[in-house]
Amino acid sequence: MDKFIVRPMAIEDYDGVFALWNSIKGFAIRSIDDSKEGVEVFLHRNPGISVVAVADGKIVGAILCGHDGRRGCLYHVCVHSDYRRHGIGKAMVVHCMEALEKEHINKVSLIAFTKNDIGNAFWNSMHWTKREDLNYYDFTLNRDNIISYIQEEQNVYN
After folding, report:
1. What global pTM score does this model have?
2. CATH entry, 4-149, from 3.30.450.40, 3.40.50.300, 3.40.630.30, 3.10.20.310
């Protein structure tokens, strides 16, 4: 692998990011939120904070990152399986956290599927705190925003 670069995500990166998402086993994407139009709205609302990692001329990592003025959130943190364990994930997370600090955001959260052993090990190695003191609730406003999972033989995250 050649060196990699981490840079802000632009809507022109969408096809490469979407291809990356579709290469990750157990990954979940939504039909509206993760469409090109949905990602464009997200990037416009949170300019310069989401990132991609580029190596060997292609997108090999991505994070959608945003905030509500109080708390930052990381979404769809992923690195292509062929490029893991080279510091790409860590570099992307640091880039996002530095961008959030410039926006005066003091706390960042994320959601990881409980069965995502690789992801959970990564967050543990990065010294993120797994919260045991709260429940996560979800309510679907638009049932047309269908979730689909990129399946692995017997390891689909629910």
Report:
1. 0.87
2. 3.40.630.30
